[in-house]
Amino acid sequence: MTGVHVLQARGLGSRHGTANVLADIDLDIAPGEVVGLVGPNGSGKSTLLRCLGGLHPVHAGSVAIGGKPLHAYARQALARAVAYVPQQVGSAMALRVTDMVTLGRMPHRGQASAAQHQALVFDAIDAMQLQPLALRHFSDLSGGERQRVLIARALAQQSQLLLLDEPTSGLDLRHQLAALHAVSKAATVRGVGALVAIHDLALAARFCDRLAMLRAGRLLAIGPWQKVLTPEHVQALFGVQARIGQDGGLPYVITVQETTTQGITQ
Predict the structure, then answer these.
(1) Which end of the chain has fewer CB atoms within 10 angstroms, the N or the C?
(2) What is the pLDDT of residues 68-80, one digit of tens each?
């Protein structure tokens, strides 16, 4: 993987029906890099993640995973290359937590021993602090607990690229940190690339190597948080004034007030 981007998108565009949702998206993610995708509701974050994972049509431009065009992947090979965690938890499957996480190993059938598969499942369960829930049924869990199971399943998948759509939105503070620490560790230890859609700007700045700011389907800015997470950009994206800084080396974002004229094009 040396010198090859985990993800490379060039001029990516997509539509819902006749409406353009994404346009002219250029995005690279290197091995070991976590990129935070931030923007208001309706800006196209979920559509972008689904396009990059092969779950929504790309109507313009190109996408490559590990240097290989997305359209050239067979279904099982793509499942080995990309793990996707949706924003909505979905239907409550009548499987135990361990069985749900084990589904992440399905693309790798025949490529590892049963003991190796099991070890990776247990590692993912540990990473998401799911040990007390391991034998419970997925359908009996709360929304936040289910979200942690889906993140664990994606971690067990051992893919090159993680696509996470607001993975912390339903989690309490403790498990928000656990989830982002797990993603960061996967990037550091295994060289995974990750794109994480996230609303908490302070968490995004803390855990992501770069931020990609999406507004009305186009990239407004991309780069290290110290350069792109500015009061001007926050106002343009969200229509609020904000104070941004660091305390003990940790970033913070404090919203002050809503502005009367928002810089958001819906």
Answers:
(1) C
(2) 999 999 999 999 9
